[in-house]
Amino acid sequence: xxxxxxxxxxxxxxxxxxxxxxxxxxxxxxxxxxxxxxxxxxxxxxxxxxxxxxxxxxxxxxxxxxxxxxxxxxxxxxxxxxxxxxxxxxxxxxxxxxxxxxxxxxxxxxxxxxxxxxxxxxxxxxxxxxxxxxxxxxxxxxxxxxxxxxxxxxxxxxxxxxxxxxxxxxxxxxxxxxxxxxxxxxxxxxxxxxxxxxxxxxxxxxxxxxxxxxxxxxxxxxxxxxxxxxxxxxxxxxxxxxxxxxxxxxxxxxxxxxxxxxxxxxxxxxxxxxxxxxxxxxxxxxxxxxxxxxxxxxxxxxxxxxxxxxxxxxxxxxxxxxxxxxxxxxxxxxxxxxxxxxxxxxxxxxxxxxxxxxxxxxxxxxxxxxxxxxxxxxxxxxxxxxxxxxxxxxxxxxxxxxxxxxxxxxxxxxxxxxxxxxxxxxxxxxxxxxxxxxxxxxxxxxxxxxxxxxxxxxxxxxxxxxxxxxxxxxxxxxxxxxxxxxxxxxxxxxxxxxxxxxxxxxxxxxxxxxxxxxxxxxxxx
Length: 525
Ligand code: ATP
Ligand code: MG
Description:
- The protein contains 15 helices and 17 strands.
- It has four domains: about 5-170, Beta-Lactamase (2-Layer Sandwich); about 185-290, 2-Layer Sandwich (Beta-Lactamase); about 300-370, Signal transduction histidine kinase, dimerisation/phosphotransfer (DHp) domain (Helix Hairpins, Orthogonal Bundle), CATH 1.10.287.130; about 375-525, Histidine kinase-like ATPase, C-terminal domain (Heat Shock Protein 90).
- It has helices at about 5-25, 30-45, 80-85, 90-110, 145-185, 200-210, 210-215, 220-225, 235-240, 295-330, 335-370, 380-390, 415-430, 480-485, 490-500, and strands at about 50-55, 60-70, 115-125, 125-135, 185-190, 195-200, 225-230, 250-260, 265-275, 280-290, 375-380, 400-405, 410-415, 440-445, 450-455, 505-510, 515-525.
- The structure holds adenosine-5'-triphosphate and magnesium ion.
- Adenosine-5'-triphosphate (ATP) binds near residues 429, 477, 489, 492 and 493.
- Adenosine-5'-triphosphate binds near residues 459, 477 and 490.
């Protein structure tokens, strides 16, 4: 061969290698990349087979990462060759005889026609990230300069491997981030610069009743439709107004949000944070969304609590003060009857204050979760009912009480003081809410595994649409009577909690001829 043509071949080879190298840097899938590197290297030098091992930073050892021309089940036999002879830069010539000896032994064992090995480091800076093994067979032999010829190719390959690894790390990180966003208990939404939704996580989807797939791609204003706004402006209005100003402050928007496809709304609080690029241009908006419904309801409850309690405390206190002040007057001499009557009223009002305070304490125990029954007694409900009736009877002239209990009414396990509280409230309601008087019937019934107690009145009844409110805290129905009579709206709430703590139930029916029947059940055991 002439010198001229030899040079030509070299140039062609270089160009071929360069083309492969360029292709390599574009390949980001690591297994594919390694396969291409190995195959091109082996084919380029006219070899028969090859293996790539990579240094695995996690386990500090070499790992077989690609195989070419060797059946997979035989790869294990190559262990001594791959791990037994360490690669030392500049000393590869000395290692070759040992490598070849190993190869001969392996080839004999697995009956493969392999007779020569060459090893190339895949170097990146000073670091060797892996080794390319190439094997020859039959009568062919690698040229002297094989390693030299391929060295820059191996360097390119190392860079490509590094890239592919970085890329897969970035991909993994991206997946991890979107998994975190998806699992976040708070609603998360990401908008692009055109305000189209690009991320809409599961929590937000549950909150708003919008399927993520439906929301993604929509304009922000078409999804986040406010029914009533509590804060000053919406995101769109704020943007028109120049938000975000330099310094990139967050924007908070709160209001009533109509649930998609439901006749219902919730309170949402959204914090929008702008994402700016190096030039200060907004590229994304990240929104954190919270459902504030319960929080606002509790706030409302607090307000009701304070107004109800102060109102209810005021009445008895001013009555007590009025009577006490009158009795103290130095200039008057009160007859024993008047004294007695006045003191009785003071006592009664003090009792009702005590009841009120007891109710409030009970309600706060329920809220704090420290409410527990004192289940120690066998409660004779028929006797309790009789006692409650005796107590209320003299308080009302125009109501008539009747008892309707079977003789053998069984005792139940329960908290006597609290069950008395339930009866007190049902009977006092029956009186309060039947201002024209009438019959109040207290009855007991025995069932296979529970007993029921009912209080029936002939009063104003409870309108159907108010049914669901009746057992809620501080709820008093809006009618003229509620305004005239005293009450905090705690009685039925507490009664329900007490009965349910006994594993019972409480409910009511409107009677056919007007009036209401409240019934509760308690298990016999
Ligand atoms: P409290 O019992 O705390 O003194 P209250 O009697 O107003 O106050 P609840 O016993 O919880 O509160 O009753 C809630 C509301 O349900 C009452 O305000 C009343 O509007 C209505 N209600 C309760 N019992 C009857 C009844 N027997 N007939 C008609 N309405 C009733
Ligand atoms: Mg009541």
